[in-house]
Amino acid sequence: MVEPKIQAISYKITKLLPGNEYIFRVTAVNKYGVGEPLESEPVVARNPFTTPSAPSTPEASAITKDSIVLTWERPEDNGGAEIDGYILEKRDKDGIRWTKCNKKRLNDLRFRCTGLTEGHSYEFRVSAENAAGVGKPSAPTQYIKACDATYPPGPPNNPKVTDHSSTTVSLSWSRPIYDGGAQITGYVVEMKEAADDEWVICTPYTGVQATHYTVKQLKENAEYNFRICAVNCEGVGEHVDLPGSVIAAEKLEAPEIELDADLRKMVNVRATATLRLFVTIRGKPEPEVRWSKADGTLNERAQIEVTSSYTMLVIENVDRFDTGKYVLTLENLSGSKSAFINVRVLDSPSAPTNLEVKDVKRNSVSISWEPPLIDGGAKISHYIVEKREQKRMAFTSVCTNYQVKVSEAPLPPGKVVLVDVTRHTVTLSWEKPDHDGGSKITNYIVEMQPKGDDKWTVCSEVKALEATIDGLSTGEEYSFRVTAVNDKGKSDAKPLAAPVVVKDITLAPIINLLFNTYSVKAGDDLKIDVPFKGRPQPEVSWKKDGHVLKQTTRVNVLNSKTSSKILIKDATKDDVGKYEITLTNSIGTSTAEISVIILDKPGPPSNIKVDEVSADFICLSWDAPTYDGGCQINNYVVEKRDTTTTTWQIVSATVARTSIKVSRLNQGTEYQFRIAAENRYGKSHAIDSAPVVAQYPFEPPGPPTNVHVAHATKIGMLVEWGRPASDGGSPVIGYHIECKEQSSILWTKVNRGLLAENQFKMTGIEEGLLYQFRVYAENIAGIGPCSKTSDPVAARDPCEPPHSLRVTNITRTSVSLFWEKPEVYGGAKITGYIVERKEVPNGRWLKCNFTNLQDTFYDVTGLTEDVQYDFRVIAKNSAEQLSVPSESTGPVTVKDDVDPPTIILEDKFRQLVVIKAGEIIRIDAEITGRPLPVVSWSKDGKEIEAKARCEITSTNFTTTLIFRVFAENAAGLSAPSSPCPLTKAEDPQFLPSPPAKPKIIDSTKTTVTLSWNKPLFDGGAPVTGYRVEYRKTLDDEWIIGVHNTKNTEFTVVGLTPGAEYVFVVKSINKIGVSEPSPESDKQVAKEREEEPVFDISNEMRKTLIVKDGSSFTMTVPFRGKPIPSVSWTKPDVDLRVRAVIDTTDTFTSITLEKATRNDSGKYTVTLSSVAGTASLTLSVRVLDSPGPPSNIEVKDVTKTSAIVTWDTPENEGGGPVKNYLVDFREASKKGWTRLTDTCHRLTYKVTDLQEGGVYYFRVTGENEYGVGVPAETKEGTKISGTEF
Asked: Could you say which of 622, 642, 673, 1234 would form a disulfide bridge with 605 (CB–CB 3.0 to 4.6 Å)?
């Protein structure tokens, strides 16, 4: 029993099993008992719809190394029910199984499939799903390779002219900011004369590798333009134009002299040897060269050689007189330049001077002399004194080793430096004098002078180069000076550069890391030395990986006043990690992090997974070791064994990835695998897998689902079913179907061959009989079990639904409906109708009439005001068959709806109507209006009543008048004629012309919006409105969307999603309705899609110039349907962090505060939606100082010199780098010393370095906007000819 007490005469029965056939019976009950039951015909509980057809083949876009975006179109047939979602599947080219890409049901027509393996090829297919189940999959795509997309590169940066002559121009540039995702293979240089339009390629067509090129064979004094493009594997990228034009003419350069470091010092040469002075020169035009000697004439033996790039002075067989200062002078039209070289010839000294005889006595004389003007390149060691008598010609020696010490007061000490200051002391240091005056320095005198006092007071006498002066007053200001003393006297005093205020100096801790990363082989000792400074003395603490470092017998920490050391003995992999040093004093805290890498064999792999098993192969994957031994894993070693043996066999010892396909296995055999990782230091321990049997991973499929008769007629049936819940691990290759009559027990196979589709058309059946079906699925493993038996279905034509359902009247609580009978009854008479309603948008369909409704109209009452409802009608025939529901009315808002009455007559009745007496006149008129108008006919102002000779027939939409006409002559009055229509004295009026072809301006899943222009001719009467009609392109019946609207735009509602429609519009004036307009373009009821586009001017495409430190905003308008998603990108920068991005439905903007050189470059904004993708690149140039020079290196290291080289900064800021500043420092010191601040080249030779010393160098670029960021050498350079 379903329900024992029902008061109404209808009831809805729920919780039925789909596909089962039911018989119902109803029994009446009164106070005297239960009556006889009335049984129904068998009814099958099933949906009136089928699974959808296949969507279109997916299309791929936005392909990367691990993801692909797929888009597709809706199925042409939704099976009669809304599409609930989509299932996207993929299959690896190397695999056999289809796997789902989406975990959740897809409601969009677009999906990004992630987790792909780089380099693998995949095919994709998509299936639609509705209430009936999953439909057929689409045709698969072509195989698509997962790899990063590549594009042509961006334009090169910073093009400039480095040199030019009358026939050549030399250019240089830097790499593009964007390489298109592929390596730059070359550069193409093009040129054209300034007056020409045609560009000519100067380089080979494949380009040149270097970032510089010299264009040759140019016309002298001709003006040229140049541009440069980068090339990668995708082709030639965007070009960059060289600013301005270049004239091929000789370049004017002032003379330049480049003295080698050896020539800047004293040049020593032995007597009788050859002096060669080689000097590099430069200048355009080629300068005139002159050599001279500052303190005399140039030796006649001097030979001078001159070329355009160097000059050389050669003097053979030199002697002491060739000692001196040699001056080189260059001169051309642009100016002159001079340089000098000091030469010392190592020879015997010249003769002493000013010999005088004094104190002559009878047996002695005193003689004196001055040292020789030329000492021969060495200190005078002694003198030889000789004498001769006047009468004799020969000299005899008086003394052969007479040593005379010639000395003088020393030069002042070198630079005086303040070393330390406390509240009562000052510590100074200084350098030795450049010359000790020929006598040893005996001591140094330190003097001080308090501020405001003119007197200098000796405060210390020391022999060392450092002194501490104590007993000073706190807060007082003192000046200091230092004097050197030898046995000849005191030097001039050397003052300290600035006065000193005596007070305690405080300094926050500063850590000077020598290296950020330390590497050591396992088993070796490791020493980490961290210099620091701070006042007061900071406290030192160490952490490892966030925890306090524990000291053991292996790990020790040694602290001093200036450094902290970690000593690790016999390093192991346990010592790997991040070490953090923290210095703390009363001024502040400083921390630094050091990475320690222990070079050892790696740890074992982990998490072996069996990805796929078949009869002759097994696919394995695993996770890389958590510890890689401090270097890259070179390969993995994979071994296997039959579990019945203990012998391991190597499958492969050169596996580069963390996966492998092990093939050539024996079916049914159980295997175990083990895997080890290997790097340059050895092989790890192996990890074993669980035992795996090599066998097919599938079995026969399960039973098909949801077997049902989707459509039945008296001559055939369409049987459909769903795929099995399990395919047994192998794709289903086909189906078998069997049939029987309901009263029979014998099943008969009805298909000859294997069925590939999920449906079968059954013919040859007998009308009126009930049939049942069952289906089997088959895969490679065989045929699976049969499905459940379908519900019995009678071989009988179906009942068609009612049509032309429309709303005739609306009030605040009711809606009046009218429809027409079905055209096909299913072989049985229509016995009634069922009217249903539902609230829009989320209501359920509810029955409106609870008695049998035989009329084709019905008033639905009890509705709620201002609520939208949808209505439909179902027909029922005498065979108790129900039709499918009619097309719904679309959303109807319940409120008082008033349309004024209109009358539509044929044109002939608007003219004079002539008819013979006795004939019958019939006037038909169509009427409209809400609520339904009351019809009355009148003649000469009097209402016509229905009489014997006058008949009036009216319905809701038409009215008809029929009467007979009378005539009169001399014999009397005939029967009266019909009255003519009322005629008004006015200009003739006609029907208006139709509007022009309506345009589709918008659409959704259930609506289409039209617009049209007014008709060219209004028929002589004002156009009072328009009627909109529509039909499906596959139907011939027009449906009225609106009877009368005064606007020239209207939205047609209640359309079927995915269906295709055409629309017409008719004009209305008081005469009537015009002919229809031309049909609109065909339009599918779906969400309208417009490709996203940018609405920007050419001005916005120009490069935005921004000053350093200022803020800027770029606003980009756009449009598209649906509203596209917006993303901003810049190479190597996360703009979500660096910038503020604001996006609305119509524009997007990006704002950057405090712009720097790093904000220069290309900003790309991308719009994405299902309708497409659009990208726009905007250029920004920040006027800033340059970034750090690149590739700084130290080359050609000798015992006293080294050459520092570098490349132009990758980011030159707002303008080209015109100058470089070069500094150096000793490794033991923290302060930098400036070598030069006017270097215009990319190399600089550093001289006068101390042999064995370790030096660091740094280079800073300078452009018109300031001095940029320095670049330092990463490691110290030892001045011994080898790198440190």
From this structure: 622
